[in-house]
Amino acid sequence: MKKKTIWNLFLILFIISFFVTPLGYESKILLQRIFAASVQIIPAEKTRRIDFDWQLKDRNDKQFNYLQTEGKKPSFVYFFSSWREVSVADLYAVEKLYDAYKDKVDFYIITNERPEPVDEMMQKRNFHFKVTYLIIGEKMPFDPEKIPSGYLVDKNGYVRAEKEGIARWNSDVVHQLINSLIQ
Questions:
Q1: What would the pLDDT profile of 11-53 be if each residue is shown by its tens digit?
Q2: Of 132, 171, 172, nearest to 33 (Cα)?
Q3: Are residues 7 and 64 in the same domain?
């Protein structure tokens, strides 16, 4: 075979590997992390206030109300699916943000999945943030169909940052905003 033919076969096999092998899945996650967009910081005069009264549940189906965060701390609300590579890619930045602010910000990292696949993903990726589970049919101030999506809410209920799709949640701009909200 000619060199060019061998090179073309190699290139075709390499491209196919992105669709049918774990290498492709991991490569897509890495590329999405590299090309993540900036989080939209909302100016104070353009923020919207959310209703704190909405129900969620923990891994053991124990229900609690988001009201527990009102007036106390800023909160980070994030919707994800463990089977979507874009969510998995985004969760790496969410994990770093959680590590930096877990004692100063209330984290609501929310999915509507069963706990088993989420636990598997968490263990495989070495994530250790607490996952919150959505109660289907309950009222809520955000659209849970937008996955992934995240919101940074101040202690008075005003959405100060948001992003639908993969985002740079662990950026200097987000850290500056959180630091200002904590004070």
A1: 777 777 666 666 566 667 666 666 766 778 888 888 899 888 8
A2: 171
A3: no
For residue 16, how many other CB atoms are within 10 A of its CB? 11
Return d(Cα 122, Cα 77) in angstroms, integer: 18
pLDDT at site 30? 66
At 126, list the tokens: 């070495």
pLDDT at 20: 66
Domain that holds residue 84: 38-182
Distance CA 92, CA 53 (A): 29
How many residues are given for the chain?
Answer: 183
In percent, the amount of the chain with pLDDT more than 90 equals 25
Q: Give the number of other Cβ atoms within 10 Å of residue 84's Cβ.
A: 12
Residue pointed to by tokens 């706990």? 115
Task: Give the residue from 136, 40, 126, 141 showing the smallest Cα distance to 91.
Answer: 126
Question: Do residues 154 and 178 both lie within one domain?
Answer: yes
Chain-centre distance of CA 13, in angstroms?
32
Number of separate domains in the chain: 2
Domain of 49, CATH number, reads 3.40.30.10
Q: Are 49 and 156 spatial neighbours (Cβ–Cβ below 8 Å)?
A: yes
